[in-house]
């Protein structure tokens, strides 16, 4: 594409294209319909492979969920219907670091007597947690500490995935507190997964409006496969649109999660990060390894993450970085 090419994208065109594509590829699955067989029709010979396929799909879903829970992943926070509280202190040195500790936290708590449909959300910097970056939370020496810039409280309504409704849906309404200012926001998120033989395709769509950054949407596609029982491969494509910027922030991650034992796991990841405006271009390439260790029971974790960035601002020359994070994760696990 030449530098003179101009691209104009409307806010929700990606969403429409995604839904149309899924509808064309999986029309019966999306609407919960199944072919109706004639009374005298014999069972299809391919029916015999349904049970192994369902078993394999279940193994992928279960293993991926365990991985996301162990890493305190955004997917676990957004879709677990159990109460979850995360608190982090982190630090990044080298490229992109500021030599300070960063404090952050969030809570998703079931309200009593609502059958887990209504949740109370508490979080820091809600308008900065919209990209779905699996390695965010960036990182720590106890000399200086960056306090969160803002806090937020919201109510969330959740509709869990069922046989009748094969989507996980949630809707939030809340207020961000920044000094003496009160800034309202609303969010909605939906996700849907499709088993594909030995793979799983998962699509997630978020739309939101913040008084501080305006309207936006984030689309994420994950393609997952269990390579072996301790190893998961995931290709994740993410596009975030902000109406005020008239721009897509784009990210492609290729990740391998390797569970060494019940206390230790590794993440190997290669990423390309880019923008669509004024033209499509890559702003950074990143390769990293993340070592995550469970310090105590199932709720105190420590991370080390050596990284190598190749930012456009440095003419794609290598720029090393190193991240550290201490995380406390409270949920139903012991």
Highlighted features:
single chain, 334 residues, mainly beta, Porin, 14-stranded antiparallel barrel, 4 helices, 51% strand, globular
Explain what the structure shows:
- This protein is mainly beta and 334 residues long.
- It has one domain: Beta Barrel (Porin).
- It is 13% helix and 51% strand.
- It contains 4 helices and 15 strands.
- The protein has a 14-stranded antiparallel beta barrel.
- The longest helix has 21 residues, at 50-70.
- It starts with 12 loop residues before the first helix and ends with a strand.
CATH superfamily: monomeric porin ompg
* Strand tally: 15
Biggest β-sheet: strands ordered side by side in the sheet: 1-2-3-5-6-7-8-9-10-11-12-13-14-15
Largest sheet: 14 strands, antiparallel, barrel
| SSE topology string | HHHHEEEEEEEEEEEEEEE
CATH fold-level topology: Porin
Number of helical elements = 4
What integer is the average pLDDT?
79
Provide the β-strand percentage band: over 45%
Task: Give the SSE layout.
Elements: H1 13-25, H2 27-30, H3 50-70, H4 74-79, E1 84-94, E2 101-110, E3 118-124, E4 145-146, E5 151-159, E6 168-178, E7 181-196, E8 199-210, E9 214-228, E10 231-242, E11 247-259, E12 264-275, E13 281-296, E14 300-311, E15 319-330
Parallel strand pairs: 2-4
Antiparallel strand pairs: 1-2, 1-15, 2-3, 3-5, 5-6, 6-7, 7-8, 8-9, 9-10, 10-11, 11-12, 12-13, 13-14, 14-15
